[in-house]
DNA-directed RNA polymerase subunit beta
Amino acid sequence: MPSIFLICEDEDSNLLKVHRWVSSQVELFFIFLTNEAYQYLILNDLLFSSNPDDRDFYGNKRIELAGSLLALLFEDVFKTFNEDLWLTVSKIDTKRRCTPFDISRHIKTWMITEQLNRAISSGNWIIKRFRMMRHGVTQVVSRLSYVAALGHMTRMTSQFEKTRKVSGPRSIHASQWGLICPSDTPEGEACGLVKNVALMCHVTRTKLHQNHPPELRIFSTISKPRNVLSPYVIYVNGKPIGFTQHPGKLCVLIRGLRRSGRIHGFVSVYIKQAYQCVHVVSDGGRFCRPYIILCNGRPLVTESVLQDLRHNVLNWDDLLKKGLVEYLDVNELNDCLVAMDESCLTDGNHYTHMEIDPATILGVVAGLIPYPDHNQSRGKQSRAQVYYSIIIIAITTITIIITLPAGQNAVVAIMSYSGYDVEDALVINQASVDRGFARACVYRRSGVHLKMHENAVYDRLMGPSIERVAYIGACVNDRQILINKEMPVVSSSAVLDNTEFKRCPVDYKGIEPSYVEKVMFSTSEGNQAVVKVLLRQTRRPEVGDKFSSRHGQKGVVGLIVRQEDLPFSTNGLTPDIIMNPHGFPSRMTVGKLLEVLGSKAGAIEGKIRDGSAFSGDPAEVLSQVLIDHGYHYLGKEILYSGVTGAPLEAFIYFGPVYYQRLKHMVMDKVHARSRGPVTALTRQPTEGRSREGGLRVGEMERDCFIAYGTSQLLLERLLLSSDAYDACVCEKCGLLATSPNWCQYCRSSRQVVSVRMPYACKLLFQELMCMRILPRLRLRTAYHSSIHTKSK
């Protein structure tokens, strides 16, 4: 029988005595069941008085990481591989046992790789063993910017159905403090279900060997005392292993082992008083967060330790090994008392831990916003790649680790200027644009596959002598060929000449020219040749482009004005951007106002100011800096009109703001067409800008035309510019004629006339005739336009 090492607390001394209790697992499980029944039904009456566990509590949740998901998928794929191999081998004649059997000839080496690639590329996880089918497990990483990639790496998705309108899984739970970012979540049906991990949160991993160290197995179990009515049950990863009489001493002992490094740093221990049990957990998928350990109400991380960290004498691992910092999960955090900062550490307190930084409750993306604790809501983070980077003046603690900022400092004047700044529109300085303000690079990729056809005939690329082929550094314009590909027309003949190939070139489509950045030749999975061309386009800001500050106040460019027409300050400084002040009352982005104040104080003083959440430089300190340098304490200045030269009649809030250029650019959205391709079925213009489609006139636009009485415009939009068709109609029977000179129904050609109607209407009549519904047209004598239908 197995031997179980147990520990007993000596009542006469503080020593811990280790015993050896030989028992079977059946006896231990029977004792556990007896104790549970006694606890539930007799002592605490938990069957009627206690509430059920909260399923939204993050201590009851586990995160499935990439390793566990791939392990489940590989297990299912490998089982399928073995079953297929067994069926293949069983079909072989087993009577010929003397002949050598080579199993490698019957192994499908591609099966595991293909199924893994299919699941990862599509994101659909199908596990037959558990009858599990999940969608969207894998996603393509967003490389729009450095911050977008960081935010995507820390994203987590709930398995809760997005169509269900239940507020519990979507709401912010108290247990997610410091673990899940409370601000970064998408809009729409995924709101609250797609979340981002906080900055210093760590998700534990499942170890291959779940055997605990000998110290944990010895010091975490105790036999059930006979003289104690209600001992505490000890669980290790949900498995009962014994009982204890002093759970507090046991928790202190295990935490001491963890801080001394004798057990793993992510092993957690906590007490559940309601159920009288002690849990020791070390499984994977738990949320853990580091905290500074307090000793007698004082942090163990002193100023000397911080100096050693600044000079690279110590690192993060050294703090964990020395027991200065430790990771706590959600359940263990309930047994601790955490101080927000050192100001909370007063005499007589009972704090056990202290926060490293209050700003770490936010994620990577939300933590980049200066003074986020003063804003009502968060904003957008998607943006293009800026031409060059600028040092941020109002910086946050998290911004220090971001080495690739995607924005620029712009001098912003919050005032009304002309009528082109309404509805959050921006007025931009033309001279700033000429000097390179918000200049961005947009990259696009084009590529082709050179496929193999019948009779071993491949697609081919023609050289520069036939047509110009894009090379690195080449400037390409609209309709210019990038990749000159030709494919065979007839693939059955043995030898093909040049006349049996047709041209299928890949050309460039764009208003402005682009430059070839890279040309790549490679092979795909099927050993097909692949040719890809990467294009680069440098864009200047223009009217209609979208900008946003880090506080989510986005707006389009309404007007670009020459510098001499813009207002200027006493020092001759002209704003780069003019923003309408009506954008503040409804959005209540006070953090942006503080950013202007902090950036201005930092620019005057020549130093970077801190705008981190809950610990940034206060407004009083920033105002004092402005006063010391002769500025208004609120950051306001007197501006002079660039047209008349007279001073404006109000003080203008004036200072630098970090602005970002979004990916929504007018060059990617502008579209117009006079003629172009149509669909084969209805002969109406195609849909979409990429297909050179037309502008859609829907039901709401149609109703608007009718309300305004614009009958000719309605006729032109819905008929003449869409799918006008001259149909042949017989005046006698009212049916569509087969030709201009013959009516198949009347067997006559005397009364066949031409009627202009939408081709979709003519198609509808023909489809109704297929359904045994005969529509007839009654035509006027003067104008053949009035259409009446009746069914037969």
